[in-house]
Write a structure and sequence with these properties.
alpha+beta; 5-stranded mixed β-sheet; globular
């Protein structure tokens, strides 16, 4: 019988020539013009540049020139700079394990020289270097030339030595787009540095250096690079996390900051997801999974969140020497990073955005074209009474706070029937405390004025008109209260009458044996039944009706990679979301003005109240300017 594939000819084992080794390195580092731009930008930033100019021709295939005002290169180091594994950034293994620079391998310039024509123009700002030097990468010729302090690297005719690889490049417009994206990624991480991109003699993008500091500098750079809409639909993220006392790395801190887009700003693609570790743009599964987990409760379906997140930690706790392009990293404690990123984004998204929206326009006592309507002051809050009225056979157990309108001041307002919540038992969950009264002018969602078709609440605030989906809003309120009730208690577990066994992989068995305490905290008891079998003896009480084997497998799989509590939370939240959906006030339920105002006040103090449990928005603002445009006022 003939072999399915022909046997290859026998070849001797031999060392490769240096030129071929450089070609292999180029194949790893230089995939397209954007790869060259990325490597040269890394070097420019490591040199301390505050202004970088990128000039391109034919999408970077004919010319890539990166000019900076950094520290420059000494004359006697120029020829060494183009050699393989020649760098000033590391000198020992300990330096490699704590890399603090963008570049460190010292092979990029040599790899680029092997596939393109490279020239290097540089000058050091010292009395000993009155002028610059120009080095030809092919011939090694060095000659003096005029230049201000800094370095310019020119790369011409990319892949001229490897024409087969050049055929795989896309159109000039596509390659230019990739080059611009490479510059954009660096620009987002360095607001204090100015960037300019020229293509075929035309300025295509420019971002000036930002003089502000801290989060304000990042906000300005994000607005410049990604647009004002990104900032307008994003919330600031800040999460300082201290390592445990007595840990092997001492009191080093893990920090997460940046901006996360609101659920309404989600996109169909993940092209606006920027994650940085110690200033380096990365595509990391831990950060991606953590950020996606933070959006689970407010963003459903296949929509992709947008964010620019920055993680800083001790360089010894992260390995950047993982991938040739340096776009992947490996954390020493990935679970710690996962929890920090997830909690940081969750906390930022939890705060209702209605308060921030209310500050967008000043209060006005006059109403006219383009002006905001005056909101009449209301009396103080009053605690709602409970009524034993029922809907659908279930008792109303989650009351809505109400207020006394001006015309009833000093009089007892008629009792407001509490809206029904899906209490599975006769014990009613405790009502949340009455929020701190706010002056009427500070009510972000304004005061209710009408109900439309039994579905929407119309309210008047300082900006104009607020439209609220009452079922979606109350669904989120009920959902958050049910979650809070369970979060305040330890997750109880329910033993199974007959343990559920399943064939487990060696990794699952090891994970179950090493994390018994963590599993117990999650209400799970998973023990070895045999060398290749695990038994589930107890599950969380709220998930007792589910599949114990599927739950155990999910938790063990997640525990091996990330924070396993997200699996239990996700399963529990799905159950509570179903309960809240069926328990929220239904459409066509007529509400009084008091009940509508009570719902608005609770929305202003409930976390994640901007979206319902299914990810739909709960309210929309229609400004006076938009209303005026509908009626052609001011034209």
């Amino acid at each position: 019988m003939n072999a399915p594939y022909p046997r290859p000819p026998r070849r001797p084992i031999r060392e490769l020539p240096d030129e071929l080794i450089s070609q292999i390195a180029a194949g790893e580092v230089v995939e397209r013009p954007a790869s060259v731009v990325r490597e040269l930008l890394d070097n420019a930033l490591d040199a301390g540049a505050t202004q970088i100019t990128v000039r391109l021709q034919a999408g970077g295939v004919r010319l890539i020139s990166v000019e900076d005002n950094g520290c420059g290169i000494l004359r006697h180091e120029l020829s060494t700079a183009l050699k393989r594994h020649a760098t000033s950034k590391i000198a020992s293994l300990s330096d490699l394990e704590s890399v603090g620079t963008m570049g460190f391998r010292g092979e990029a310039l040599a790899a680029i020289c092997s596939i393109a024509e490279v020239s290097l123009l540089t000058r050091v700002d010292t009395p000993e270097e009155p002028h610059g030097w120009l080095l030809d990468g092919r011939s090694g010729e060095l000659q003096p030339t005029a230049r201000s302090p800094g370095t310019t690297v020119e790369v011409r005719e990319l892949f001229f030595a490897t024409p087969a690889r050049r055929k795989f490049l896309k159109t000039d417009a596509t390659e230019l787009a990739h080059c611009i994206e490479a510059v954009r990624r660096h620009a987002l991480a360095r607001p204090e540095v100015g960037f300019a991109i020229w293509h075929d003699g035309k300025l295509v993008a420019q971002w000036r250096a930002v003089t502000a500091q801290g989060i304000d500098a990042l906000r300005q750079r994000l607005a410049d690079v990604l647009g004002e809409d990104f900032i307008a639909q994003a919330v600031a993220v800040s999460w300082p996390v201290a390592l445990p006392a007595g840990s092997e790395d001492g009191p080093q801190r893990l920090r997460v900051w940046g901006f996360a887009g609101v659920p309404d700003a989600a996109r169909t693609r993940s092209d606006w997801q920027y994650a940085y570790v110690n200033g380096r743009f990365v595509r990391d599964k831990v950060i991606t999974h953590a950020s996606r987990s933070a959006y689970e409760d407010v963003l459903h379906g296949h929509r992709q969140p947008v964010y620019a997140l920055f993680v800083s930690l001790d360089p010894t706790r992260v390995d950047v020497n993982v991938h040739p392009t340096k776009i992947e990293v490996r954390f020493r404690d990935s679970r710690e990073v996962h929890q920090a990123v997830r909690h940081a984004v969750e906390s930022a998204l939890a705060a209702p955005r209605s308060a921030a929206a209310a500050q967008a326009a000043p209060m006005s006592g006059e109403t006219g074209a383009g002006s905001a309507p005056a909101v009449q002051p209301e009396a103080a809050w009053s605690t709602p009474d409970r009524l034993p009225s029922t809907l659908g056979g279930a008792q109303n157990t989650l009351p809505l706070q109400r207020y006394a309108p001006p015309h009833t001041a000093g009089q007892r307002v008629s009792d407001v029937g509490a809206l029904w919540s899906p209490a599975a038992t006769t014990d009613a969950p405790p009502a949340s405390p009455v929020p701190t009264p706010l002056p009427a002018g500070d009510w972000p969602l304004g005061r209710a004025i009408a109900q439309l078709q039994g579905v929407y609440i119309l309210a008047e605030n300082a900006q104009g008109l607020v439209v609220v989906d009452m079922h979606a809003a109350h669904e989120r309120i009920v959902y958050e209260r049910l979650k809070q009730q369970l979060d305040d208690e330890q997750i109880p577990s329910q033993p199974l009458l007959i343990p559920a066994t399943f064939a487990a992989t060696p990794q699952e068995v090891a994970t179950a044996e090493d994390n018994g305490v963590v599993l117990a905290m999650l209400g799970l008891e998973v023990v070895p039944f045999s060398p290749k079998t695990l038994a589930v003896r107890a599950v969380p009480t709220t998930l007792a009706q589910g599949d114990p084997v599927e739950l155990a497998r999910s938790v063990l799989g997640e525990l091996g990679q990330h924070d396993a509590s997200t699996v239990v939370q996700r399963a529990r939240n799905e159950l509570l979301a179903t309960m809240a959906c069926h328990g929220a006030v239904r459409a066509n339920r007529r509400l009084t003005i008091d009940e509508m105002n009570a719902l608005l006040r609770q929305m202003e103090t409930t976390e994640r109240s901007d979206q319902c449990n299914h990810g739909r928005p709960t309210w929309r603002q229609v400004s006076m300017k938009e209303l005026d445009a509908l009626f052609l006022r001011g034209r």
